[in-house]
Every structure is written in structure tokens, then in C-alpha cells.
UniProtKB/TrEMBL annotation:
Its EC number is 1.8.1.9. This is Thioredoxin reductase. It comes from Rhodotorula toruloides (Yeast). GO terms for biological process: removal of superoxide radicals. Keywords: Disulfide bond, FAD, Flavoprotein, NADP, Oxidoreductase, Redox-active center.
Length: 407
């Protein structure tokens, strides 16, 4: 998750444009498309070079060179085209965030020949997950100057490919975990023969619940966030009034965390009571830098076009409206794990997260592992997701070895 918020890049999608070219099926019409798009892409790249970091421009140039050399639906070993001759795999990874790619890197280095299905806008995100919607990431080790979320995920992907991961852009729409090997169907190809896998890693992530109020899209990542731990310390929030939406334990925790940086924190609670535990509720209500606005919901996010400056609020009992000065709005109204694919086949908890055995990524079905936010409702950080991806790869390798399925 990001630790700094800034205005979205005015020229987004350069790397995504080049990537889409490398993933387009090879055909006569696609050759024409590449020729037509090349001029546009070069123009965009030249225009953007002056306003994006050198490393991003270099990466985009490299992506364009790759696109010019080959156009293929499957990428192996750094982007070279390849056609799979078999649909049976030792390890399939569903999801392409930090958990999925870390799993892929470890599994590929272990010669498991992992196959990843990135998902085309799966769970509402582009391939790469939530980090593709963020700007600067400053809390992931190895990037002392920070790195843009989309660029970081491009690097994750390049490293997965370097070690031999096969990456498909398609979304897996259906799985059958009732018998071995596991069966997986691609979206739009449900009537065809499925892919099969001896082991499966679910790394489909989770998405924060949002309120979709007017102004939310404008100020998302420019004052509005769903992760106080990720974003609370950034300069635009320091010594400024901030607001937290929610009345549960998470909302109380986030509000108390933000008091380290904010001039004051307002909790916007829909009802006249907190849903949080008594201990957490008492701490929030007694904190000198927290004011709880009961029976209150945000109606609109307002700003100067660059950053959030105020909120339009509504009293749910009287329907009265008023403005509140706030330079930050943090949603703490829960997350939605992307587990629809495995519902009824894997054990899920009351909130829909995949249940794993304590200290492992093993799910209720032997040989199926879960990594990242799809099974983590506590931390939800990129670095913890990456760690669980590593764990899933090591446990998959061990499972295959114990069942004599490594060959």
C-alpha cells in the first residue's frame, strides 16, 4: 500500500499502453494496429519525458521496443513469445499483485514453471492490483526515493518473467477444486477444456469499500484514502484537520493513529453509537484530539482542484447540512475480499476472507494456498502481501515434493 499521496500522473498509462501491445494476439490486423499506434505512442512518450522520472521514461521506451519485436498473448522469460503445448501445470497463481508476483518469482526459481493469470480488470483493478491505482510508494524496502505504484508493479512483473513465469492476461472465471488436478476456466472460454493444476495459489486481493460521493474520484489519492497507516504521514496531512468515516474498531484505530500527524481528527459516525469494542470506543471518545460527530455522513468532497480542503456533511436525523474543514478523508468502512471465485469451495470467514491454517497459507483444500489481502484482514500492506506470497511458493513446493509431483 502507498505511503505518500500525490496528484495522479497527467500522462498515465504509458507503460500500460506498451504492455497492451505486447499482449495483443498476433494477427494481420494487429500488425496494422501496432504500426498505427507506434506513432501515437512515440509522441506520448516524447511529450511525457519532460514530466515523468527518467526511470519511467526508460521503462516505457524498453516496453515499446519489446512491443515492436513481438506481439503475443503469452509471455515467458522476459517477454519472448511462446505457445504452451499443454494446459496442465504444477502451479497456477491467480492474481498479480505483490503476493502473486512474489510467489511467482520464488516458484520460478524453484523450477516449478508457474503460470500466472493476471486478470483483466479483475476485482476492478488493472493487472498489478491496488498499487496500479496509487502514485508514490515510500514504505516498500529497496526504494529510498520512493516509486510510483504502477512502475513498481511493472518491475515485479519483469522479475517474474525473467525467471520463467508464464503470464496470461485473462481472468479466471471459474474453478473446480472438488477433485485433482484442479480445473480452471478462462473468462469467455468456459465451454472449452479447462486448465489444470496440481497446486493453486489464490492471490486475488481485496478492495476497500468506498462511498462514491461527489468529488471522491477527483481527490482520491489527493486527500482521500482508505489506509491511514499507509498514507497518514504524508505532508499534505501533517498538522491539518482530518476525518475518518466509520464507527468500528478499524475506524477508532485509524483515528487514533492519525492523531500523531493531524491537528485534529473528526470521526464521522452514521449512528449515535460506536460499533467498536468497549475498550476501543473508550479510547477514541476520551482522546483530546478526536471529536466524534454522531449521526453524520459525508455528502461531498470539496477542494481546490488539486487537494481536498473540506467536506459537506449531513446529519442523518435532522437532514441538516454543513461544511467541515478537512484536508483528509479516510474510509474505515471495511474491505471486500475477491473470493467470489472460490465461494462454496474454500472455507471463508464471516467477512468473506479465505481462512488459512495458523502460521501457513494452506487453505481448507490441500494443495490450494492463499496469499495477500485475500486472506489478510489485519495488515493489508504490500510488504506483508509479498511475504505471504513467498510463503505460498515455498509451501507449494513442499506440497508438490511430498506428493512426488515436482517432475
Amino acid at each position: 500500500m502507498p505511503s505518500r499521496i500525490s496528484k495522479p500522473d497527467p500522462q498515465p498509462g504509458l507503460a500500460l499502453l506498451a504492455r497492451s501491445l505486447t499482449r495483443t494476439s498476433h494477427s494481420h490486423s494487429c500488425s496494422k494496429l501496432l504500426t498505427h499506434t507506434a506513432t501515437t505512442f512515440r509522441s506520448l512518450l516524447n511529450t511525457a519525458r519532460a514530466r515523468i522520472p527518467t526511470t519511467v521514461a526508460a521503462a516505457a521506451s524498453a516496453s515499446f521496443a519489446t512491443a515492436s519485436r513481438a506481439m503475443a498473448p503469452i509471455e515467458v522469460n522476459g517477454g519472448a513469445a511462446a505457445e504452451k503445448t499443454s494446459k496442465h501445470n504444477k502451479l497456477v497463481i491467480i492474481g498479480s499483485g505483490p503476493a502473486g508476483h512474489t510467489c511467482a518469482i520464488y516458484a520460478a526459481r524453484a523450477q516449478l514453471n508457474p503460470v500466472m493469470f493476471e486478470g483483466m480488470l479483475a476485482n476492478g483493478f488493472a493487472a498489478g492490483g491496488q498499487l496500479t491505482t496509487t502514485t508514490d510508494v515510500e514504505n516498500f524496502p529497496g526504494f529510498p526515493e520512493g516509486i510510483r505504484g504502477p512502475e513498481m508493479m511493472d518491475l515485479f512483473r519483469a522479475q517474474s518473467l525473467r525467471f520463467g513465469t508464464t503470464i496470461h492476461t485473462e481472468t479466471i472465471s471459474r474453478v473446480d477444486l472438488s477433485s485433482r488436478p484442479f480445473k480452471l476456466w478462462r473468462e469467455g472460454m468456459e465451454q472449452e477444456e479447462p486448465e489444470t493444476a496440481e497446486t493453486l495459489v489464490i492471490a486475488t486481493g481485496a478492495s476497500a469499500r468506498r462511498m462514491h460521493i461527489p468529488g471522491e474520484e477527483t481527490y482520491w489519492q489527493s486527500g482521500i484514502s482508505a489506509c491511514a497507516v499507509c498514507d497518514g504521514a504524508v505532508p499534505i496531512f501533517r498538522r491539518k484537520p482530518l476525518a475518518v468515516v466509520g464507527g468500528g474498531d478499524s475506524a477508532c484505530e485509524e483515528a487514533m493513529y492519525l492523531t500523531k500527524y493531524a491537528s485534529h481528527v473528526y470521526m464521522l459516525v452514521r449512528r449515535d453509537v460506536l460499533r467498536a469494542s468497549k475498550v476501543m470506543a473508550k479510547r477514541a471518545m476520551s482522546h483530546p484530539k478526536i471529536t466524534i460527530l454522531w449521526n453524520t455522513i459525508p455528502l461531498e468532497a470539496k477542494g481546490d482542484g488539486e487537494v481536498l480542503t473540506s467536506l459537506r456533511l449531513k446529519d442523518t436525523k435532522t437532514n441538516e447540512e454543513r461544511d467541515l474543514e478537512a484536508n483528509g478523508l479516510f474510509y474505515a468502512i471495511g474491505h471486500v475480499p475477491a473470493t467470489e471465485l472460490v465461494k462454496g469451495q474454500l472455507e471463508l470467514d464471516e467477512d468473506g476472507y479465505i481462512v488459512t491454517k495458523p502460521g501457513t497459507t494452506q487453505t481448507s483444500v490441500p494443495g490450494v494456498f492463499a496469499a495477500g489481502d485475500v486472506q489478510d484482514k489485519v495488515y493489508r500492506q504490500a510488504v506483508t502481501s509479498a511475504g505471504s506470497g513467498c510463503q505460498a511458493a515455498l509451501e507449494s513446493e513442499r506440497w508438490l515434493s511430498e506428493h512426488d509431483l515436482e517432475a
